[in-house]
Amino acid sequence: MDGEFGGNLKQQLKKLFDESLKLTVSDEHGLEPLVAASDAKFRKLGDYQCNNVMGIWSILKPKCSQFNGAPALGQAIVSNLPTSELVKSCSVTGPGFINVVLSAEYMAKSIENMLINGIDTWAPTTSVKRVVVDFCSPNIAKEMHVGHLRSTIIGDTIARMLEYSKVEVLRRNHVGDWGTQFGMLIEYLFEELPGSDNEVVTTIGELQLLYRKSKRKFDHDPVFKEKAQHAVVRLQSGDPVYVKTWAKICEISRTEANKVLQRLQVKLEEKGESFYKPYIGNMIEELNNKGLVQESDGARVIFIKDFKTPLMLVKSDGGFTYSTTDMAALWYRLNEEKAEWIIYVTDAGQKEHFDLFFKAARKAGWLPDNDKTYPKVNHVDFGLVSGEDKKRFRTRAADVVRLIDLLDEAKTRSKAALIERGKDKEWTLEELDQTAEAVGYGALKFADLKNNRSTNYTFSFDQMLCDKGKTAVYLLYAHARICSIIRKSGKDMNELKNTGKLALDHVEERALGLHLLQFSETVEEASTKLLPHLLCEYLYELSEHFSKFYSNCQVNGSTEETSRLLLCEATAIVMRKCFHVLGITPVYKL
Ligand code: ARG
């Protein structure tokens, strides 16, 4: 027995191969076996492969006479493999691939163990303790657009994957609440609506109108522009009249953003740009003492090799920039919050900004030179969303997309589809509403997460709400169907979990079981590579495996009923965990 039923097959196998390799080639250090689930074309030979024996052999060949080729080395590695319940058999094929067939008994026991002790026993393990995920982060008074929706959905899933792996995640909303737009907004209010004590602007719609009007004036009226710039300075120096109006404007935006976040069930803590203001002075001084800050046309900048424009710390008028705040925020996150990994989720358009400021932080010695060791930073970028006409994304009603309208429409459409299927007659109004919400928002999230995040995608309600193909609707159906199979059996699953035995005798049972056991390593891979679509892919394949199993293996009323019901239950549990990590609410009937 290996002592524990860790869900991560890959890690367990890697450990076995590590030990064998040490025994087989004891004087060679630093060799790493590469273990991976077998590609489709090798699956007949085994479930996993160690596929770098040829590479290891090419290192050994010049100095080793013990083996006469990679296949022989492979054989030796196989014979030195420590005995383990996990492995049924191994074979060496072709130029030296080692194929591993897992023991179905062991697999079955691992799944039984998860059923008894819960899916958290399959959580990936990591040495990282605290991570900042900086996501959503809209700009106050400006439109919270579909890019912020992508950031919110992707960032939330990354946070959830890490939380499942028992990492403490600081979810940060780095709202743009300190930019130059405030000068123009406040100045406009003071000029056009004097004495109103800013009670005229109370809703987000009014605020956006104010933004547009003041921006027009700012762009066309040089006198106003100058006044607006002064207003920023007054605000930044803490003038109470300006600060009061600023706070009011922030509050309106915050209320609107919170509505979206609440609907999406995304938790976030706001630490906006203004929060880091007190840290800017010391931060610049530290960089200055390190000799990194230079004068350039009256501004204070850091030059970075290979970048045409330097990182602007202080503008010639004394103001700070987006980059200044990001440097101060990074300092704070590393030194005050003691985060080991800081993940920024924004559109790909900001790549250059992050490249530049990460390089500056490396130059300052805040981060190690390589991007493998901690503390680590990553820019999680994503592509654009376009409308079905391939143009800029807009809704029918307005020329900019209000996120709340988007959510409303997703819900309305999914509700209409449920009513069309007669669910309004079967369910209570509350059930109908909750299901419509779960399906509608789930569809929206999944449609975003399923694509490799770097690619652009086309937003289509029809596609995302389709009940076939890679959609949340299809997956939620698959889950509800499993629940109904279990319900129809009339069995008490809690009792069955503790008394029943699970077997993986049929090929489809075995294939499904193996896929279930690969959940943990999939989450691990998706969180290490910061690629949520890998988990979507996994979930889709899981439902495909289940379909194959269900159409080949009778469950209710068969002699294998207990075992197969347990397999159904395990599938439903893993599906629910996937939904949870993707921020989707599962439904039990559809
Ligand atoms: N407010 C920015 C925007 O809307 C995103 C902020 C991202 N986070 C950061 N630390 N720069 O584009």
TrEMBL record:
Function of the molecule: Forms part of a macromolecular complex that catalyzes the attachment of specific amino acids to cognate tRNAs during protein synthesis.
UniProt keyword terms in alphabetical order: Acetylation, Aminoacyl-tRNA synthetase, ATP-binding, Ligase, Nucleotide-binding, Protein biosynthesis
Keyword tRNA-binding: no
Ranges of residues in domain DALR anticodon binding: 475-590
EC number(s) reported in the record: 6.1.1.19
Domain Arginyl tRNA synthetase N-terminal span(s) in chain numbering: 11-102
Gene Ontology biological process terms, A to Z: post-embryonic development; reproductive structure development; translation
Entry superkingdom: Eukaryota
Family: Belongs to the class-I aminoacyl-tRNA synthetase family.
Name this protein carries in UniProt: arginine--tRNA ligase
PROSITE patterns tied to this protein: AA_TRNA_LIGASE_I (PS00178)
UniProt GO MF annotations: arginine-tRNA ligase activity; ATP binding
Catalysed transformations (reactions): tRNA(Arg) + L-arginine + ATP = L-arginyl-tRNA(Arg) + AMP + diphosphate
NCBIfam families per the UniProt record, alphabetical: argS
ATP-binding is among the record's keywords: yes
Database matches in InterPro entries: aa-tRNA-synth_I_CS (IPR001412), Arg-tRNA-ligase (IPR001278), Arg-tRNA-synth_N (IPR005148), Arg-tRNA-synth_N_sf (IPR036695), ArgRS_core (IPR035684), DALR_anticod-bd (IPR008909), Rossmann-like_a/b/a_fold (IPR014729), tRNAsynth_Ia_anticodon-bd (IPR009080)
Transmembrane segments: none
